[in-house]
Structure of Transposase:
Amino acid sequence: MRRSYRFLLRPTSRQAAALAACLEDHRTLYNAALEHRRTAYAKAGVSVRYGDQSAELKHIRGDDPGGQGRWSFSSQQATLRRLDKAFRAFFDRVKAGRTPGYPRFKGRGRFDTVEWPKDGDGCRWDSQPGHPAATFVRLQGIGHVRVNQYRPVRGRVKTISVKREGARWYVVLSYDDVPAEPLPPAGAVAGIDMGVASLVTTSDGGRVANPRHLAATADRLAAAQRDLARKKRGSKRRRKQVARVAALHAKVRRQRLDHAHKAALALVGDYDLIVHEDLRIANMTRSASGTIEAPGCNVAAKAGLNRSILDAGWGVFLTILAYKAESAGRKLIVVNPAGTSRTCARCGHCAKENRVSQASFVCTACGHAAHADVNAAVNILRAGLALRDAAEAA
């Protein structure tokens, strides 16, 4: 099993400056490689591949020993592979007939990660194992950087990445062969319905609250963004205000992630089998149909619903739930969401009129009344059990 760990770095002021220089040089390399590909095709009709650019990297490092030559060769190859991956995704979208989205040059705010693809090649995790009280990661050109390791890690280190978020630096470790940590049987199963009023509603009536972190910070964010709008572009004050806005968004993201971890851990501990809907969140949060000249119906209401769904963090929660269930030896089943909120859990009658309001469900056929989310969760559980029985019978 593969797992990622993320820890806060505690660099000195000199190491922080070196980390920023490393990130900037990798961004410059990415943009130069992109320009190379664009120019070669535009001027000569030649497609430049990753292998061609990787072969030229040795000469680039030799000509710039105080710049590109300072950093790990393998990390620079990872940056070139990142560009190659962007081009392959571009051509795949072209072949599929979708909006292609040509790879773009990376500004300072759009390039925040450097990856070392192998532990020991330009980097070393736990580089001072004899230290009695701290963990360090060694990065070529930067040195031994202290890590705030708050939990043990298990398995074999595959890749090491450094990421900048605002004024903070994080190390992200990708581990292979992580041993599972199975939990004892709970003796219960559940279907879960994702919502906005409650983040999760279970088929037995349990609820996980939706803390609405973004809504709670909305006033502070609005004030910070108004201050930002008044700052002159390129000024020192504007850069500071951009950092303040980014820090507020980062705090909301960390709060949402923390709540998702706690909620998923509680569910995994309480149930042996968990069933949820296969939600297409990107489709659900698209803007209301229409144009600027002829907007669609209920545009403001749709925008508010989209904001609430994204604030709830359904995608983050379901991703965390999946890997926690795998680690704990629990079974997770994903079902088609069609009709789960309109179907009566007692008689099976499906009609739009059954859903009286956001919270109320009253079947027009048999009169069964229940909370709408609980009714949907029961239908989700039933569909999941049917899929499990069919798989076992096969």
The chain has two domains: 3-176, 189-393. The chain has ten helices and 14 strands. The mean pLDDT is 92. The two ends are 27 Å apart (CA to CA).
